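Supplementary Methods, section 5.1.

A reviewer requested that the exact input to the structure prediction be made available. We therefore reproduce it here, unchanged from the version used in the analyses.
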Amino acid sequence: MKSDKIQFRVRYGETDQMGFVYYGNYAQYFEIGRTEWLRKLGVTYKKMEENGVMLPVMNLNINYLKPAKYDDLLTLKTTLIKIPSAKIEFSYEIFNEENELLTTGKTTLVFVNMKTSKPTRAPKYIIEKLQNITA
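The structure derived from this sequence is encoded token-by-token as follows.
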């Protein structure tokens, strides 16, 4: 499936007393990865919400292999696992400048109708965009 890579540098405020990235920040890194992945597809959370659909996380899994440290330049690879239905799933890999794999993860998000607060199918315009890039 389609993957995207972004790079970012670890900021001082993202680290703990040991100088390692605080474990809770990885969820935010993954969020940046998937929102940029969607943006490059031509979709934004803002547009989805304007169209009455929200996309909350229903599952998050993180595997910490090696620590990231202050001022490290990290590469985050975000990959769509499969064409979405009512759920969309992404996998993540974070590498340091030496291309060492530091962290892996997965998220599952569910498309929710904002009026009913119930799950709904992925918007047609998202499916069409994905079919164009995977064809």
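Helices lie at 25-41, 45-50, 124-134. These observations are discussed further in the main text.
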